[in-house]
Design brief:
The protein has helices at about 1-10, 20-25, 70-80, 95-105, 120-125, 135, 150-155, 180-185, 195-205, 230-235, 255-265, 280-290, 300-310, 345-360, 360-370, 390, 420-435, 450-470, 475-485, 490-505; strands at about 15, 50-60, 80-90, 110-115, 165, 175-180, 215-220, 240, 245-250, 290-295, 320, 335-340, 375-380, 385. By secondary structure, the protein is of the alpha+beta class. A hairpin with a 2-residue loop joins strand 13 (about 375-380) and strand 14 (about 385). The two termini are about 30 Å apart.
Length: about 500
Amino acid sequence: MKVTLKLVGTGMAACMLLLSACSGAANTGKNEGGTTAAGTKSDSTNKSGPPTEISIITEFHTTEPPSQENPVLKEFEKRTNTKLNIIWVSPNNWTEKQNVVLASGDMPDLMKVADLRNPLMQQMARQGAFWDLAPFIKDYPHLMEYPKSVWDSTKINGKNYALPSVRPLEGSSVMGIRKDWLDKLNLKVPTTTDELYGVMKAFVTKDPDGNGKNDTVGYNMRDPGLFLENVFNKSNGKWKLQDGKLADTTLEPGTRDYLVWMNKAYTEGLIPKDFAVMKTTQAEELATSGKSGLTTDGMLGLWRQIENPRKSDPKADYMALTSLNGVTTQSAGFLGVYLIPKKVPEAKVKKILELMDYGATEEGFSLAIYGIKGVHYNEVDGFKVGTKQADTDSISVSSFGKIFERYEKYLYAYAPGMTKEVFERNKVILDEKAKISIPDPSIGLISETDIRVGAEYKKKTDDLKVKVIMGQEPIGSWDNYVKKLKEDTEYQKIIAEMNKAYQERAK
């Protein structure tokens, strides 16, 4: 997800799609007369009285953070009758900064926390350090447009202390396949793991790029566990709902089946021999150089990975698979949360929510990620095309778009430079995914034991998976490891605590 957001931030400034193309609504960028482009009255907030001063802390993923004199910031202040003091934190020390600010007790009026499971934040919420927003949010219609599942999964101890940093539910992680290679080899789009294996083998042995060499791989192994392991377990991540309880997929037969499948692919040379030591950028290079039949990324990222191959072959095409074995996963629908400390007066809480509600309108969201028409973008054939000033002013979904967010179902369907044909196909795929996608039942759940020792178990598990795939350990070693975990008191305590947390949330 981090990679996806960085892509959106850097790419959208160069060539951006109209929100109307994503939502089916008319463009609502304001003109000089204070009305929307459609000629209707602006959906801005109450401008009576002196501006409300609001301090905010969040991260940025642009080259530089927006300055205090940024024209988009000034426009937000003008439209919402506020004075915004935004503390922008580099992603390089964002995690550390959050904990320092939380521990200090001297929090700004609105604070972003990247991980809902942050132990300190969870503890503080249970101690009453933040406002429960449930009594208020019903009065803010655009915040109420966030999916109910997102509001439910971000509850802490049954209360809505957290304002989700909303993102689409579909399209953040997909497997892309070279559709042009399928067509060239007269193969159909695979819908099962058996069919996928056959396609991978054909991609390696039948010279799909037509250069007369056997220099292609079936799958570049960019985050295989995010997709294939879920497919074999019919799950979304480490935990799956089974008979009303959370089951740890590490102990499930699906993970074993996945390892056997991957070991066979490794043995037959369908995946890179050095996948275990490859960096993400190296795996991507196999795709961007036109040497990999399969890759994984966000739906936007698939376009980025195919852009270079398209320069020499306009038919080059990574198409997102809808599902395999009938399985596709749903994202959390948010990337971090915002909290309002209890020291903030109730009247100001409402003003903060009014600000965020405006940011969730089409007009506010457009201002956040595209900027001001004629300054940061121009409209060309129904598209918003960014200017150099947009880069200069750090206008992006990865700056102001980190604060002001609207739930846009097709946000991940488009990438700069994408053809309309691919965009429309992506929307259809997202719609099909939405019908069957599996949510992660463990979002927001905490095990104190997992916080203490979970990282150690994860490292041991991941290391053994790699060894089994590469044939350095037999599948029997995995069987023995699973047996030991089932008898491990600490490990079983994690499972018990996760289930207790799940049942408490269900109540």
